[in-house]
Amino acid sequence: MDGDEERFLRRAFELAGEARDAGDGPFGSLLVGPGGDVLAEDRNTTVTDDDITAHPELKLARRAARELDAGTAAGTTMYTSCEPCGMCAGALARSGLGRVVYALSSGQLRDLQPGGPVPVRSEGPYLYDEARQVVEGYVP
Question: CB 49: neighbour CB atoms within 10 A?
Fold first, then answer.
């Protein structure tokens, strides 16, 4: 990790602090373009927006998918205070961003926030032959 990357992560921490000061979860992220310029930054607003999906990683992934051409998106790096959750990781994979750099891992976050979100029980797969008929051949 070089000095610029440390600076970008520290800015993510500042955004996380702003979120916490506003009563939201302490998470912040920024999107850096291929040339090293900050394209966008955001913080968690799940409480103030009354929206459980208002994670900074998801908001920036949506913005990148809407506003960046594929080549530019592929050359970007998102710097974020914590490892993206499953929801955000899925959005990032679909957004075409090139790379994510995070500070705290999900495990470290759980250790710092005992009593946090409990994973939903998941079951399956079921009815493969029927389910595949709807999906087979679809190319996004």
Answer: 12
Q: What is the pLDDT of residues 90-117, one digit of tens each?
A: 999 999 999 999 999 988 988 888 777 7
- End-to-end C-alpha distance for the chain, whole angstroms: 34
- 106: number of Cβ within 10 Å: 14
DSSP code at position 123: -
pTM for this prediction: 0.88
**Spatial CB neighbours of 110, under 8 Å, sequence gap ≥ 6:** 116
User: Which sequence positions are flagged as catalytic?
Assistant: 57
Amino acid in the structure at residue 3? G
List pLDDT tens digits, range 43-58.
Answer: 999 999 999 999 999 9
The strand order across the sheet containing 99-104 reads 38-43, 28-32, 77-82, 99-104
Give SS3 for 39.
Answer: strand
* DSSP output for 68-122: S-HHHHHT-EEEEEE---HHHHHHHHHHT--EEEEEE-HHHHHHHSTT-PPPPP-
